[in-house]
């Protein structure tokens, strides 16, 4: 009686333990039919008692039954614990979960098989993650194989871990024969030493290393290649190897050699031109006048190029072509802006810049100038507050193009250097008389601000007040010097106040002519 009670208590205790386990625990008789199933099997949508007496393969996906049966037979015959088996298990709603199961044989006192104990774990999420990684790796492999330049990657010891099909083609052997080898297995020692030297230079400098070298491939071919090498890191930021991409520039070098005579002649002509310029006037004036006179010659073809890009936008293009077109337009516009700045400054230096005197509507010109600023701010998702009071004169006399240029330069700088917060731009009329008006332009931003040292150099030509985050904000360094010159030509003033970490305020006062009503 006591033994029976003890068995009941032990069974109850076992039931309690298995009911509180995450793993799915089951017992089966020697014939492979379930005799016990833990409560955790409810995750499949079944009550444990529904499956008692069923074969252990009842819920196994048809495609996985052979795997499960084979391992079951193996471990029954060997008498040893089974290896982990991965398979799909059918839920009551018809869906499948991935399980990983291990089996153990329980023997009776006579050494005969009494029961089979199975412990299963839901590995669906792990399998999905593994499949996602496999898909990602397949995508990366397809991408690098689509690149026409040879690509390879090695570990820190210089052992090849992989590469694209182009690299295998250049090497004249399958990638499987390259993986696991070093340059010393593939190239002559002298050349392998050079490769290793460049590898170490990139690893030690933690950056891109670029070099040109002649390479003799295993089949005897010799090519001149331009090689870029850079370290690559794991998810924790540790350098674990080096990535390389090469480009065959043999034909390019041959072309360059064929142009040597032409380049020599060009150098002679350039020298003669410099000498002629030096005798014509002082070097600085000659430079300034030459650049100023290049205005039409440089702007006209570039404007034509931009115009053709705009026409091409109206044609049917793929999404990739549209993206390329956008980059080309942006680059061309940026180049035109740089040319305009350089030429404007050259004309200022040469004393050839003149202000137009013509009637114009200030409100119209201000709206034209702020339109691209609004677009730039929207691109950066940056609030731009515009304040145009009603006291602006309806019509004035002056240079509308230079007014727009001043607004664009100051407003553009504020937006360019402000990454958080906002930019405010206001224009008002400070004073009016019979012959002139004083217009006040105030631009305030919440950008990084500037130190006193930076402020003292702000209007120096070619000085670039970087915000410290990158060189993406860099330009010619001529925008503000040109703005200051234009403001002074308009008998105005410009003042800049700034606090590091808080922002900058630029206040400009411009004098324009008044028109009688």
What does this structure look like?
It contains 17 helices and 17 strands. The strands form three sheets. Strands 11, 12, 13, 14, 15, 16 and 17 form a seven-stranded mixed β-sheet that branches. A five-stranded antiparallel β-sheet has the order 2-1-5-4-3, with helices on both faces. A five-stranded antiparallel β-sheet has the order 7-6-10-9-8, with helices on both faces. The protein is an alpha+beta fold. Helix content is 45%, strand content 24%. α13 crosses α17. The chain folds into four domains: 127 residues, PAS domain (Beta-Lactamase); 108 residues, Beta-Lactamase; 91 residues, Orthogonal Bundle (Helix Hairpins), CATH 1.10.287; 157 residues, Histidine kinase-like ATPase, C-terminal domain (Heat Shock Protein 90). It catalyses: ATP + protein L-histidine = ADP + protein N-phospho-L-histidine. GO terms for molecular function: phosphorelay sensor kinase activity. InterPro entries: HATPase_C_sf, HATPase_dom, His_kinase_dom, HisK_dim/P_dom, HisK_dim/P_sf, PAC, PAS, PAS-assoc_C. Pfam families: HATPase_c (PF02518), HisKA (PF00512), PAS_3 (PF08447), PAS_4 (PF08448).
Short note summarizing the structure:
It is built from 17 helices and 17 strands. The protein has 517 residues and is of the alpha+beta class.
């Amino acid at each position: 009686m006591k033994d029976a009670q003890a068995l009941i208590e032990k069974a109850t205790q076992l039931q309690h333990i298995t009911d509180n386990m995450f793993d799915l625990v089951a017992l089966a008789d020697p014939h492979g039919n379930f005799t016990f199933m833990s409560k955790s099997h409810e995750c499949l949508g079944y009550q444990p008692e529904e499956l008692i007496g069923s074969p252990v393969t009842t819920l196994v996906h048809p495609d996985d039954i052979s795997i499960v049966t084979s391992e079951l037979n193996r471990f029954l015959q060997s008498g040893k614990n089974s290896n982990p088996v991965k398979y799909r298990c059918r839920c009551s709603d018809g869906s499948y979960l991935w399980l990983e199961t291990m089996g153990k044989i329980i023997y009776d006192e006579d050494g005969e098989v009494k029961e089979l104990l199975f412990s299963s774990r839901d590995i669906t999420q792990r399998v999905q993650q593994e499949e996602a990684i496999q898909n990602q790796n397949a995508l990366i492999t397809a991408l690098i194989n689509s690149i026409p330049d040879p690509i390879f990657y090695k570990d820190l010891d210089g052992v090849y871990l992989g590469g694209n099909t182009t690299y295998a083609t250049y090497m004249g052997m399958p990638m499987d024969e390259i993986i696991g080898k070093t340059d010393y297995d593939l190239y002559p020692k002298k050349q392998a030493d050079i490769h290793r030297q460049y590898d170490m230079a990139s690893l030690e400098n933690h950056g891109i290393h670029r070099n040109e070298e002649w390479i003799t491939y295993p089949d005897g071919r010799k090519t001149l290649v331009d090689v870029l090498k850079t370290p690559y890191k794991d998810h924790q930021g540790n350098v674990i190897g080096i990535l390389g991409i090469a480009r065959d520039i043999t034909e390019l070098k041959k072309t360059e050699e064929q142009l040597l005579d032409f380049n020599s002649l060009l150098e002679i002509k350039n020298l003669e031109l410099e000498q002629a310029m030096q005798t014509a006037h002082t070097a600085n004036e000659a430079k300034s006048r030459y650049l100023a006179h290049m205005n039409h010659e440089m702007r006209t073809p570039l404007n034509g190029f931009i115009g053709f890009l705009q026409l091409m936008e109206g044609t049917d293009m793929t999404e990739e072509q549209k993206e390329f077109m956008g980059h080309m337009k942006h680059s061309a516009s940026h180049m035109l802006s740089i040319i305009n700045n350089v030429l404007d400054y050259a004309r200022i230096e040469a004393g050839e810049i003149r202000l137009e005197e013509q009637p114009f509507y200030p409100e119209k010109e201000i709206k034209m100038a702020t339109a691209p600023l609004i677009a730039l701010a929207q691109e950066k998702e940056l609030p731009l507050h515009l304040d145009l009071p009603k006291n602006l004169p309806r019509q004035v006399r002056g240079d509308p193009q230079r007014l727009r240029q001043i607004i664009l330069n100051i407003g553009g700088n504020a937006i360019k250097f402000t990454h958080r917060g906002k930019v405010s731009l206001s224009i008002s009329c400070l004073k009016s008389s019979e012959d002139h008006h004083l217009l006040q332009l105030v631009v305030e931003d919440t950008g990084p601000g500037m130190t006193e040292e930076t402020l003292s150099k702000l209007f120096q030509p070619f000085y670039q007040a970087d915000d410290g985050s990158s060189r993406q904000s860099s330009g010619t360094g001529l925008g503000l010097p040109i703005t200051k010159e234009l403001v002074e030509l308009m008998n105005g003033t410009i003042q800049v106040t700034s606090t590091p970490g808080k922002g900058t305020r630029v206040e400009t006062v411009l004098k324009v002519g008044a028109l009688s009503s």
